Amino acid sequence: MKKILPFLLVICLLSFVLGACTDTTSPSPSTSNPPVSTPTPPPTQTTTTPPPTQELVTITIPTYRSGEDGGAKLFLPQVERFNQQYAGKYHFTFYINCKI
Q1: Residue of 58, 79, 86, 91 with fewest CB within 10 Å of its CB?
Q2: What is the pTM of this model?
Q3: What sign results for the dihedral spanned by CA atoms 12, 16, 22, 25?
Q4: Rounded (to 5) percent helix, strand, coil in the chain
Q5: Are the beta carbons of 40 and 71 closer than 8 angstroms?
Q6: What does the alpha-carbon distance between residue 86 and residue 84 come to, in Å, rounded to a whole number?
């Protein structure tokens, strides 16, 4: 009995896993006509409006990854590159040597 029950459980689990992995849908043969392309109208002139100006979003975060922390050597230059890349849109500032 002790050997049969685990064997039956393994068989049941395998059948569930393998049954769930099979693809039951079969592709139906295509009997419809190919789509007909409609002529596109000639392009019209559109006036482009400049995008709305976005205010500078400043985010101030307390972090231990600043000051004399070992991770600050990599973290702070990444943040500076981000601030330079998105200048005028986003700006991150940090509390230096913040003890959380």
Answers
A1: 58
A2: 0.41
A3: positive
A4: 30, 10, 55
A5: no
A6: 6
CA 24 from centre of chain: 30
* CA gap 79, 22 in Å, rounded: 48
Q: 47 pLDDT exceeds 70?
A: no
What contacts 59, CB < 8 A, 6 or more positions away?
90, 91, 92, 93
Let me know if 83 is exposed, middle or buried by CB neighbors in 10 A (0-12, 13-18, 19+).
middle
Nearest to 94 by CA among 68, 71, 76: 76
How many residues are recorded in the chain? Answer: 100
Q: Find the mean pLDDT for residues 58-67.
A: 78
The residue with greater pLDDT, 70 or 60, is 60
**20 is written with which tokens?**
């769930």
| 88: DSSP letter | T
